[in-house]
Amino acid sequence: MTAKSKASFDTLLSMDYRPLEIEKEIREFWEKNRIQEKLMEHREKNNVGVLGWVEGPPTLNGIPHVGHARGRVMKDLWFRWRTMQGYFVPFWAGWDCQGLPVELEVEKLLGVKNKRELLERVGEERFVEECKKTIMRYHKEWVEADRKLGMFIDQKKAYWTYTDEYIEREWQYLKRAWEQGLLEEGYYVVAYCPGCQTSLSSAEVGYEGSYVEVEDPSLYFKFKVADSRDEYFLIWTTMPFTVITDLMLAVHPEAEYAKVQVGNEKWIMVKQRVEPVMQELGIKDYSVVETVIGRSLEGVKYDYPFKDLIPKQAELDKHPLVHRVVCEDFVDVNTATGVVHLSPGNGEEDFVAAQKRGVPVFAPFDDEVKFTSEAGFFQGVFARDADSMVIEELRKRGLLVKADKIRHEYPTCWRSHHKLVWLARREYFLRTDRINDKVLAAAEKVEYFFEAPKNRFLSFLKEGKPWCISRERVWGAPLPIWVCEKCGAKTFIASKKELLEKALEKPPPNFELHKPWIDRVKIRCEKCGGIMHREPFVLDTWHNSGASPYARFTDEEFARYVPVAFLTEGIDQTRGWANSLLLEHVILTGKAEAPYKAFLFQGLTQDAKGRKMSKSLGNIIEVNKLLEKASADVCRFYMLRKCSPIDFMNFDLNEMNRRPYQVLATLYHLNRFFVQNAEYDGFNPQRHTLEWAKNNGLLKKPDFWLLSRLQKAIGDYTANLEKCEFNTALAELEEFVVETVSRLYVPMIRKELWTDDPETLNRRLAIYATLWHVLKTTLLLFNPVTPFLCEALYQKIYRRLDPTLPESVNFEKWPEVDESLRNRALEEEFETMLECASLVYSARQKAKLKRRWPLRKMLVVASEKDCKALQGLNDVLLELANVKEALYAETLPEGVKAEVDAGRWVEASEKGISVYLDIYRDETLLGEGLMRDIARRVQSLRKELGYVPTDILETVHVAGLDDESMRLLGPYIGEMAELVRAKKVQLHKNQSEIKVQWHEYSLDDKKVYIAIS
Ligand SMILES: [Zn+2]
Ligand SMILES: [Zn+2]
Q1: Which residues contact 811 (CB under 8 A, 6 or more apart)?
Q2: Residues of the chain falling short of pLDDT 70
Q3: What is the rounded CA–CA span in Å between residue 371 and residue 386?
Q4: How far, in Å, from the CA of 384 to the mean position of ligand 1?
Q5: Cis omega before residue 516 (within 30°)?
Q6: 195 alpha carbon – ligand 1 mean position (Å)
Q7: 418 C-alpha vs ligand 1 centroid, how far in Å?
Q8: Are 313 and 306 in contact (CB under 8 A)?
C-alpha cells in the first residue's frame, strides 16, 4: 500500500514545489482546453455587468522587458479578478505599429542614418514594407511573453493601429476637430529633432529622460546702438547660431538699465546684473555712468553686424520694426545681462513677440536644419555647427566679449537623443488650448488612486498648449487634408470610400491608407476645378494610439465600453497615451468627459541597483529569456508584492527567488499536506461539507477561529485591490497563509490527524472540511496573481476530489465575506492566547529549553477577562506551549513567589500578562524530550526518503545512544512509533547489530543513528 499510494501522489503533486514544471503543464492545459476562449464566451453571456477596457498598445519596436511585464501583470490581475467577480471585460490585445519609434528601429536595421538617405536609398514603398515586417517580428516576441506570463488577454481580437479600418476611425476624431475649427494649419515655432527630421509635440519635449546635461557655448557679445559713438547692448546666449536669424532685442520695461563705462565704450545692461557679469567677464575697471528705465529703450535701433554676410538680413533691416529694441515682460532680469536677442524663427516667445508686432519671421532652414541660401554665407551649414562660425565672425568685427562653455540641462529628442532645435515651421495643430477647461474638468473626474501621479497629470494638463500633430515622416496615419494647388482651398476626407470616389485616377489594387500610395491620389477642387494634393504630413503617433477607444471598437462596442472602467500604464504615459486619449475623447464627444473612469499610473522598473534599464548599461532583462529559467508565478507575485504599483521598483532576481518563492512553496505544501491526509481518511468534499461538520458539532475553536480569520482576509484583500494597493493586499494574504494557517492553525490540529483511530474519524473529516474551505478560498484569492499554481492545485486536488467543480479555477466566483463565520470575540481570545504562547517561548529562551521539550507546569497571571479567555483555549495553549498543565491566577501566589526567587520558575511578561514556567524536568520529562528530539530527526529522514505523511513505516531503528539515554527513552518507544507513523521502533546498542541503511545525526554534540526499514 505504501509504495502504491506514493507513486500515484508523485505524478500529481511533486514533493517539492517545482513551478516551471507546473507552469508548462498548465499552459498546455489552458491551450488544449481553450480555457481563455471559453472564459470570454462564458462571461459574455453570463455576467453581472460589463467593465470597459482598452489595451494601451505596446509599441512593436523592441523586445518586451521586465518593466513591460510588470504593467502586463497588473492588467491581468485586474482582468482575472473582475472576471471572477462576474463582470465581462473586453480584455482584447492591441498593438502600436506606426510612428517614429518603429521608423527609427527600421532605419537602424537598414543601416541608414537619416531621412534623406532613407528616401534616396530605400524609398518609401520598401520602407513601409520593412516597417510591417519589423512589427510582425516583434509581435511574435510579445505574444510569447504574454503566453509565458500567463496573460489571459485575447490575442485574436487584437487591434493594429496601422490598418485602414483603424486609421479610418482615427480620422473621425480629426473630422470632429475640423468641424469644430480645432484643426488648424499654422506657422509656429515647434521643437524639431534634426536626427529624426520631424517636429515634436510639446508633450514629447517634456518626456521622461529627455532633459540631459549637455555642453553649449556661453557667449557674451555686443550690438552697437545705431548712430551712437560708443554705446553697445551687452547680450548673452548659449545658441550663437541664432544671431543669424536675429531680428530684435528685448528688455524688461520696468527694470532699471545701466550704461556701464568699460574702457572707452558704454555697455547697456540691466543694473542689478552689472556686478556679477563684470566679475564673470573679469573686468575690474568699470563704472556705471547713467541709468534709464527699460521702457525708455523701446524702439532704439541697433547695427545688425552680419548684413554683409546675409543679404536677406540687409533687406529685412529696412523694415521699420526690425533690429530694434522691444519691451517684453518675459525678459528675466535675474540672469545674464537682462538684454535678450530675439530670433522669431528659433524661439517660441520670440515668435509670439514678432507676431504681435507684425515683424516678419526669418527661418532659413531645410529639413536637416541646415541653413538655406537665404542665410547667405552660412548656406548648407547645420545650425549647431554654425555656432563657432558666428563666434569667429563676431570676433572679426570686434563684437565678441567672451566665448566660454557651459554645462546645462537641455532637452533632447526622446527617441534619438539629438539636441532639439526650435524652428518656425508650417504645421497642423489641434487647438486643444481652446478646450482646456473641458479637458481639465474631464480629468478632475477620474479616479487616480494615488495623489502624486494625479497631481503630476493635472499640472501637466494645465499647460494646455496647442497640440502639434503633423509629422514630416513616412510610416504613420496620413493627415487626410487635400489642398488645391490653384486656389489654396482645403478639403478634409473622412474615409477610404470617399477618397476612392473623389480620386481623379483609380488607385492600384494594393492601395492602402499610407504613404506613398495615398500621396499619389489627387482630387478635383470643388471651388475652382484645380488639382488638389494631399498635405504630405503623417500624424503624431500619440494621436494614432490615442484614438484607440473609438478606433478599436465598433460604434456599438464604443457605446457599450467607453468610458472604460479602468486603465493602467506607466507614469511616462502622463504626457503620452493618458494625455492623447483624453484630448481626443473630449474633441470627439464635445463633452467634459475622459474616456476612462480610473487610471492607475505605474512606477517604472529599474535594475537591482536602482539604475534605469538601458541598452548602454546592458542591464535590460528580457521577459522571454527570464521566464525560460524563472517562474512566471513567482515573478508575478514578486512584482505585485514588493512595492506599491506607483513606486519605482528595483527588480532583483535574487530577492525574487527567496521570500516570494517561499511564500508560494508554503501555499503549495499546505495544499499537499491537506490532500494527503484527507485522501488517506477517505474525505469526500460533497458529503463532508462545512455544514455537515457544523451540524454534527465536530468543529472546535481553532476551526472557528481560522474560518473567522479567513473572512477578515477576504474583506481586507478585496478592499485593497479596489484601491490598487496590490502590495498591501498581498502582504495580508501572505500573512494569512504563512502565519495564520501554516504556523498557527496546522500545529493546533496536527496531532489530531496523526492517529488513524476510527473513533475520531469524523473529527478528522471535520478538519478536512475546514481546510478544504479555507485553502480553496485562498486559492481563489491568489488566482489573479499566481494563476498557474492556483490552476494546478485546483485541478490536482479540488477538482479531482470534486468533479462537479467548474472546468477551471477561473470560472469560480470571487470569495465574499460570510459574516456568519466571522467571530470577533473569538479572534480576540485567540490574540490573547497567542500572546501567551509567545511569552512561553521567550521564557523558554531565557532558560535555554527547546520548544520540543515538554514541561510540567506553567502559571499565567493575568486579568480576570484574559484568564477566562485563556481557560477556554487551555488545550490549544498547552499544545502550542508544549506544557502539560497550566494554572491561571489574577495575582502571583505566595508559594510560587518564593520558588521564583529560588530560580525554579522563569518568567516573561507583556501587555498585562505574565507567564511563569516551571523549569524542573524529571526523568519522565527528560525521556519524553529526548524522544521528541529523535522523532523530529525521523520525520526529516522520512521526508528525505520520499515518504508522504500518510505512509506507515514498518520499523524505525535507533542506535548510538548511551545507557542513560536508552533507559530514559525506554518508556516512550510506543508513543514515538505513533508520532512518526511506524509500526514499531527498535533501539540498538550499536549499528552493527542489524544490517540496515544508517543515517547519522547529531544530538546535543553526540552522534545518533537512524534507519527506516
Ligand atoms: Zn530624434
Ligand atoms: Zn481650388
Answers
A1: 39, 42
A2: 1-11
A3: 9
A4: 15
A5: yes
A6: 5
A7: 6
A8: yes
Map residue 376 onto helix, strand or coil. helix
Q: If you measure from the C-alpha of residue 535 to the centroid of ligand 2, how many angstroms do you get, rounded to a whole number? A: 14
Query: Rounded CA gap, 235 and 394, in Å?
Result: 12
Q: Using alpha carbons, select from 401, 391, 468 the residue that is nearest to residue 432.
A: 468
Q: How many CB atoms lie within 10 A of CB 871?
A: 12
Q: Which amino acid is at 193?
A: C
Bridge partner residues of 213 (DSSP): 409
CA angle 377, 378, 381 (to 5 degrees): 150
Strands 538-539 and 531-534: unpaired
Distance 515 CA to ligand 2 centre (A): 23
SS3 string, 195-231, reads CCCEEECHHHHCCCCCEEEEEEEEEEEEEEECCCCCE
Distance, CA of 163 to CA of 317 (rounded, Å): 51
Secondary structure (3-state) at 209: coil
Ligand nearest to the CA of 420: 1
| Residue 540 Ramachandran class (φ > 0 left, ψ -120 to 50 alpha, else beta) | beta
* Grid coordinates of 364: 532659413
Q: What is the DSSP code (8-state) at residue 432? A: G
Q: Distance (Å, rounded) from C-alpha 126 to C-alpha 109?
A: 13
Q: What are the φ and ψ backbone dihedral angles of 860, each rounded to 5 degrees?
A: -110, 125
Q: Looking up cell 544490517, which residue turns up? A: 995
- Torsion-angle region of 226 (φ positive above 0: left; ψ -120 to 50: alpha; else: beta): beta
Helix (H) or strand (E) holding 906: strand 905-910
- Please tell me the number of the ligand nearest to residue 114's CA: 1
Q: How high is the pLDDT of residue 11?
A: 54
Residue 119 Cα to ligand 1 midpoint, Å, equals 17
Ligand 1 centroid distance, CA of 715 (Å): 50
Tell me, rounded to whole angstroms, the distance of Cα 504 from its chain centroid. Answer: 50
pLDDT, tens digit (0-9, with 9 covering 90-100), for 879-925: 999 999 999 999 998 888 888 888 899 999 998 999 999 999 888 89
First to last CA, the chain: 15
Q: Ligand 2 centre from 489 Cα, in Å?
A: 5
Does the CA dihedral 677-683-684-687 come out positive or negative? Answer: negative
Are 171 and 480 in contact by the 8 Å Cβ rule? The answer is yes
The 10 Å Cβ neighbour count of residue 405 is 10
Tally Cβ neighbours within 10 Å of residue 478: 23
Q: Which ligand is nearest to the CA of 191?
A: 1
User: Do 572 and 61 form a contact (C-beta atoms < 8 A)?
Assistant: no
Helix (H, G, I), strand (E, B) or coil at 534: strand
- Using the mean position of ligand 2's atoms as its centre, give its distance from the Cα of residue 525 in Å: 5
pLDDT, residue 1, reads 32
Distance CA 378, CA 368 (A): 14
Which grid coordinates belong to 295?
521702457
| Residues forming a β-bridge with 468 | 429
Smallest-distance ligand from the CA of 411: 1
Our separate counts of H helices and E strands in the chain read: 38, 35
Per-residue confidence (pLDDT) for residue 952, from 0 to 100: 87
Contact present, 507 and 520 (Cβ < 8 Å): yes
- Confirm if 250 and 342 have CB atoms less than 8 A apart: yes
Residue among 561, 461, 447, 22 nearest 206 (CA) = 461
d(CA 808, CA 39): 9
C-beta atoms surrounding 554 within 10 Å: 10
So which residues are the catalytic ones?
57, 96, 542, 573, 577, 612, 615
Bond from prior residue into 549 cis (ω within 30 degrees of 0): no
pLDDT at 196: 86
Neighbours of ion ligand 1 (CB under 5 A): 193, 195-196, 413, 415-416
Q: Could you tell me the CA-to-CA distances from 8 to 2, 363, 446, 912 in Å, in that order?
A: 10, 81, 54, 52
Nearest ligand for residue 532 CA: 2
Measured at the CA of 687, the angle between CA 682 and CA 691, to 5 degrees, comes to: 125
